[in-house]
Amino acid sequence: MTERLPFALPGARPHYGPDRSVRVEHLDLHLRPDFATKTLHGEVTTRVRAIEGGARTLRLDAVDLTIDTVRDVNGAGLAFTATSKHLTIELPAALAADEAVSFVVAYRAIEPRRGLYFIDQPRQAWTQSQDTDARAWVPCFDHPSEKATTTTTIVVEPGHFALGNGALTSRTESADGVTFRYEQAVPHATYLLTMVVGVFSEIEQARTPLPIAYYVEPGREADGERSFGRTPDMIETFGAALGVPYPYARYSQIAVADFIFGGMENTSATTQTDRTLHDERAHLDFSSEPLVAHELAHQWFGDLVTCRDWSQAWLNEGFATYFETVWAEASRGWDEYQRDVFEIVGRYLDEDGERYSRPIVCNVYRDPIELFDRHLYEKGAAVLHMLRGELGWERMRRALRRYIEENAARSVETIDLVRAIEQSTGRNVREFFAQWIDRAGHPELEIRASWNGERSALTLEVEQKQAIDASRPPYVFDLDLGLLAVQPDGVARDAGDGPAAGEQRVRIHVARALESFVIAVAAKPALIRIDPGAYLLCTMTYDLGTEWHTAALRGDPSPVARIRAAQALGKDDARSAHEALVAALRDEPFWGVAVEIAAVLGRARSAYAREALLGALAHPHPKVRRAVADALGTYHEAEVASALLNRRSDESYFVVAAALTALGKTRDPRAFDALAAALGERSWNETIAAGAVRGLAELGDARALEPLVAATRADRAEPLRRAALGALARLGTRIDSVRTAAAEALERALDDPSYLVRLSTYAATETLADARLLPALDRLATAESDGRLRRDAAEAAMRIRGAAKTPPELVRLRDEVDRLRDDLNRLRDRDRPTTVPA
After folding, report:
1. pLDDT in tens, 639-661
2. Are 251 and 296 in contact, with CB atoms under 8 Å apart?
3. Element (H, E) at 422
4. Does the pLDDT of residue 554 top 70, yes or no?
C-alpha cells in the first residue's frame, strides 16, 4: 500500500469567506472574443447595494486583466487602481446603508492563462470559472456566497454560435457579426458564469415545454443524441424526486474540445467535454448518462442552492454524484443503483487508503480546487446514500424538498441541510453529520458468525479494525441483519432494500470496537444478510464460513452482498468455495456482480479459475467480457494468450483494449508484435491503442520503449499520449535500461501545453519515482497556473522523496513473488481435479 500523505500540504492555511460591504445584485456582460489575437474585449456593468453605510471603495477580483476605463452609468469616469489580482474602484461619495450603485468596467483579457481558453482546432473559445477563475475573464466579486442575476450579450463572427447563461432572448445578425443575448433571472454565483463560442450544430429537444438543447460540432449530431438524448427524462425524474421543478427558463449542454474537466454545471448552460460524445460501437458499454445526470443535478444542488464557501462544497458535488445513482435507479433499477453506490464507495476508499484521509468539510488548503477530490464527490455521495438508509427514501425526499425550497437562490452550509431534515422529519441528525461529515475515515469491519444448535442461537461479532484511540473513538451505527430459514431459489433481481419472503429482520446497535450479539433463532439460518441495503460506509470483510458465504453468493438479493461473498470465497481454500465461484460466474444474472467474481477468480491464479475465465470470454455482456479479459492477465500461459489474441475482433472497444493489456501481462512471445500492430488501430478516444500501450508496459520488453515514446509525440491523439506516459513510467520501473529514456520523456511532457496530458504526467512521475524529475516537479509545484496541477506536482515530489527510502529492487522482487505464486498454484492444481459440477 502507498504511504498516505497529509491532505494539508506545506503552505496550507485555514480559509474563511471575505468581509462584504455590498451585495451584488446584477451583472450585465458585453463580450466580444477575438480569435486572431486570443483576446476577450469585455464590458461589465455591475449593480451593488450597500450592506451598511460608509463604503467608499470597492475591491473586485480581476486577475491579469487589462482595465481600460471605469465609469458610472452616466459616463463619468471613476478613479481606479488595477493590479495583477484586483481592481479597486473609488466611489465619488460614501454609500448609505441599502443604497444601490452601478458602475461600468471596460477591459480586455489578453491570451488568458486561466478562466478563458481559446482552442485552435476546432476553433472554439470557452470559459471554466470554477473554482475562482471567473476573475480571469471578468472583473467581479468572485466568491460562491455572492449571487446575482445576469444578462450576457456576446458578439461573434458570422457563422459562429455563442452560449451564455439563461434564456436566449435575441439572436441578431449584422455586418458586425452575430449578437446573442441571454438573461438569467435567478441569482447565481460568479463561478457559474459561462461563455462558449464556436461553430456548432444546434439540436432542440422538443419533448417538453421547457426549451432543452444540445450543441455539438457539425457532423456529430448522432453522437450528441447518444450522449444527451435522455436529458428530458432526467429533468422529469429529478423534478419528481425532489418535488421541485427544474428552476430555470432553459437548459442546454454544449460539447467542447480540450475541456479540462468532464463537465461544468454553468447555470442553465452546462459545458461538457467532447470526449463524452461516442459512436455506436462505444455505446455498447459506454454511457454519458452519469456525467449528464451529474451536471443536471447541479442545477438544483450547486446552482440554485450553493455552498457558502468551498469548505462546504460537498453540498454541491456530493449531491450531484449521488443523483447519478438516483438516475441509475430510475432508469435501470435497484441493482444498478447499488452497483453505482458500490463503485462510488470504492473510489473513495482508494483515495482514503492510498492518498490521504480528511474530513469532508475542511477549510485548510492552499487552493480551493484541492478540495475537489473523492472525499468531496464520492464520500459525500456515500454519506447521502447512508442518510437514505437512516431516513427512508420518502422522508429523505421530503427533507430535500424543504432544503431546496427554503434555500433557493441562497448560499448554504451543512447546518442548513441538518435543519431541513430535523424540521421535516423530526430526526436529530447532528451526531450523524458530526461522525460522517466532520470526521475523517470510516469503519473497517470484520464480521464473524457462528451457530449454536444447543442454544438455538446465532452469535454475530462485529469488530472495528481501524485505528482507535482517544481522538478516534469507535464509530457508532446501526446495522440491519436479515435471517432466512430457507435458501432462496435463485437470485431476485431489483429486489430493493426490503425483506425477502420469509426474512426475519434484526437491527443491532454498534458502539464499541468489538461487539458480540446473540440472536435467538428457531433453526440455523440458511442465509444471513448483513446490511441488506449496503447503506453503511465502511470496508467489510466476512468470516461466516464456506456454507453461509456460498448461500449469499447463490441467493442474496443484494448485489453488494453477493460481491462480498465472492470476495470471501476467493480467500477460502475449500473445493466447495471454488465450485461456488465457478458456478456463480456462469449463472450470475447481473453483470455488476459477475465482473467482481471474475476479478476474484483472476486473483486465484489457479487452474480451476483459469478454466472458468476462459469459458466466460464469450459472456454476452461486454462489461463481463472486459473483466474476464483483465483477470486472465494474471495467467502467464500460451493457452490464455491465444484466447486473448482471439478477442481482438470483439465488438466492444473496451474488451479489445482489456484483452491487449492482459496479453502484455502474459508475456507471451507473440504479444509484442500484436501490441505494436494495435497501436495503429483507430477507435473512439483511442481506447484500443491505449490498451495496447498498457500491454506493452506490462510485457517487460525493452523493445516497447520506442513505440511508447512515439505514442507520446504531440501529433498523437491526447488520450493515447496520456496512456503512453503512464505506460512508459510502468516500463521504466521494470527495466533498468529504459528508465533514463522514460524519465526524459516524462520530463518533456511536464511542459506539454495540454492540461490533461500534464495531469497524467504527474501521476506517471509518481509511478516511475525517479529522483531526476524532482527539480522539474519542485519548479512546477509553484509555477503551474492551476491549483490542481500545483498540488499534483507537489504530491509527486513528496512521494518520489519517500520512495527513495525503498530499495530499487523492490518492484522486481514483487514480480518474482508473483511468478513463484503462479508456480505454487500450478503445483497444487496437479493433484486437484479441475472439473466442477454443472
Report:
1. 999 999 999 999 999 999 999 99
2. yes
3. helix 414-425
4. yes
User: In Å, how far from its chain's centre is CA 673?
Assistant: 35
87 phi and psi angles, rounded to 5 deg: -120, 120
- In three-state form (DSSP H/G/I as H, E/B as E, the rest C), the secondary structure along 547-607 is HHHHHHHHHCCCHHHHHHHHHHHHCCCCHHHHHHHHHHHHHCCCHHHHHHHHHHHHHHCCH
> DSSP readout, 113-160?
SSSEEEETTTTEEEE--TTTTGGGTS-B---TT-EEEEEEEEEE-TT-
pLDDT score for 815: 54
Q: What is the pLDDT of residues 280-302, one digit of tens each?
A: 999 999 999 999 999 999 999 99
The answer to whether residue 419 scores a pLDDT higher than 50 is yes
Q: Is the peptide bond before 368 cis (omega within 30 degrees of 0)?
A: no
Cβ atoms of 380 and 318 closer than 8 Å? yes
Place of cell 481600460: 68
CA distance 609 to 570: 10
Q: How many CB atoms lie within 10 A of CB 820?
A: 10
Contact yes or no for 456/520 (Cβ under 8 A): yes
Alpha-carbon Rg for the chain in angstroms: 29
In this predicted model, what pLDDT tens digit does every residue of 38-66 receive, in sequence order? 999 999 999 999 999 999 999 999 999 99
Closest CA to 52 of 91, 16, 23: 23
442, 319 in Cβ contact below 8 A?
no
Phi, psi of 265 (to 5 degrees): -85, 40
Q: Which of 617, 333, 390, 350 is nearest to 507 (CA)?
A: 390
Above 50 in pLDDT, residue 836?
A: no
pLDDT tens by residue, 29-43: 999 999 999 999 999
Nearest C-alpha neighbor of 449 from the set 562, 565, 345, 578: 565
Pairing of the two strands 212-216 and 251-256:
parallel
Work out the pLDDT band at 818, boundaries 50, 70, 90.
Answer: low
* Mean pLDDT in residue range 425-435: 98
To the nearest whole number, what is the mean pLDDT of the chain? 95
pLDDT of residue 573: 94
Cis peptide, bond prior to residue 352, ω within 30 of zero: no
DSSP per-residue codes, 249-317: S-EEEEEETT-SSSEE--TTEEEEEGGG---TTGGGT--SHHHHHHHHHTTTBTTTEEESSGGGTHHHH
Q: Rounded to an integer, what distance in angstroms lies between the CA atom of residue 180 and that of residue 192?
A: 18
Q: How many helices (H) and strands (E) does the chain have?
A: 26, 30
Average pLDDT, integer, range 748-763: 96
The overall longest dimension of the chain from CA atoms, in Å, is 95
Nearest to 762 by CA among 777, 779, 752, 782: 777
CB 284 within 8 A of CB 652: yes
Distances (CA, A) of 707 to 508, 695, 731, 777: 58, 12, 12, 26
